[in-house]
Amino acid sequence: MVTSLTSFYFVLIQIPEDKSLPKSMNETNYSQVTEFVLLGLSSSKEVQRFLFMIFSLLYLAILLGNFLIILTVTSEPRLHTPMYFLLANLSFIDICVASFATPKMISDLLVERKTISFEACLAQIFFVHLFTGSEMVILVSMAYDRYVAICKPLHYMTIMSRRVCITLVIISWCVGFIHTTSQLAFTVNLPFCGPNQVDSFFCDLPLVTKLACTDTYVVSLLIVADSGFLSLSSFLLLVVSYTVILITVRNRSSASMAKARSTLTAHITVVTLFFGPCIFIYVWPFSSYSIDKILAVFYTIFTPILNPVIYTLRNKEMKSAMSKLKGRYLKPGQVSGVIRNILFLDQVN
C-alpha cells in the first residue's frame, strides 16, 4: 500500500528538470537515498528502556480510552447527538494520530539502528498531515456545535441535523487530504542524494526537506505557509467561536454560565494542547530540534490520551453511559465465571 501510494504521487507530480543543476546530477536518479536513519528521542540505552515502558503503556491507554468512547457513544442511544457523534470521530482520529508513528517509535527503542525506507517515510508524512489536518477541522466543528447549542438552542436540532454532522466529518477528511497532498507535493520530487539522518522519531516534513541536495528555502517557506494557514485559520475560528459563546453565556443565568464554562474549559484545554505544538513547530520554524521533539511527542501521544480524559471525566452523561456499558458486558460474577472456566480447562488438560 505504501509503495503504490508513493508511486501514485511520483506519477502525479512531475517537476521539470532543473537546468541550473550540474548535468551529472540531472542524469542520475534524484532519490538515491533508499532509507533514512531516525535519531529518536535519546541515544542512552537506559533512557530508551524507560521510554519503551512509558510509551507502551501510554499507547495502550490511548487505544483503550478512545475505543471505549467510540463503543460507548455507538451503543448508548442517549448519546446519539451531534456533540457525541463528533466526539466519537475525534476519538477515531486520535487513534490514527497516535498510530501513524508511535508503534514504530516504540519498537525502535529496542534496536540500535533506527531506519525507515524512503517510501515509508513519505507515507508517514502523508498520514501525519492527513490526520492532523482532519483533527483541526473536527475541533472547529465541535466548537460550532457548542456555539449553536448555547447561542441558538431552539434551532439546535434543526441546524445540527444528522446530514450536517456527516457533512462536517466528510469535510474534515477532505481538508486533511488536500492539505497532505499539497505538503507531499513539495517533498516527493526533491533530490535526496547524501545526508539521511532525521533528528526525530518519525519523518517530520521540515526535517526531511533539510536533507535534500538542493536549496530548500522556497520549499520550506511554502511548507510553513501551507501548515501555518491551516493551523492559524482553524485556531482563529476556534477563538472567535469560544469568545462569542462566553459573551452570550455571560448575559444569561449564573447556572447556565457555570455549566457552559465547565464544557468550554474542556474544549479550550484540548484545543490549546493540540494547536500549541503544531503552531510552534510550523509557524515558528526556528526552534531547536530538542524542543521540536518534545512538542511532537505532545501532539502525537499526550493529546490523544488527554482527549478521552478531559471529555469524559468531566461529563456526567458519558460517565453514566460507561457505567451502564460496564454493567451490561461485565455483570457481577461474569468475569469470575470466565476465570473459573479457564482454570478448569487448564486442570483438565
TrEMBL record:
Give a single Pfam family match.
Answer: 7tm_4
List cellular component terms (GO): plasma membrane
Identify its membrane topology class. Multi-pass membrane protein
Does Acetylation appear among the keywords?
Answer: no
Q: Which organism is the protein's source?
A: Nannospalax galili
**Keyword Disulfide bond (UniProt):** yes
The entry's family comment says:
Belongs to the G-protein coupled receptor 1 family.
Query: Where in the cell is the protein located?
Result: Cell membrane; Membrane
State the UniProt keywords alphabetically.
Cell membrane, Disulfide bond, G-protein coupled receptor, Membrane, Olfaction, Receptor, Sensory transduction, Transducer, Transmembrane, Transmembrane helix
Superkingdom of origin organism: Eukaryota
**PROSITE patterns given for it?**
G_PROTEIN_RECEP_F1_1, G_PROTEIN_RECEP_F1_2
Query: Which protein, by its recorded name, is this?
Result: Olfactory receptor
Q: Where do the G-protein coupled receptors family 1 profile domain residues begin and end?
A: 65-311
Which InterPro entries does the annotation name? GPCR_Rhodpsn, GPCR_Rhodpsn_7TM, Olfact_rcpt, Olfactory_Receptors
Residue intervals passing through the bilayer: 50-71, 83-102, 122-144, 164-186, 229-249, 261-284, 296-313
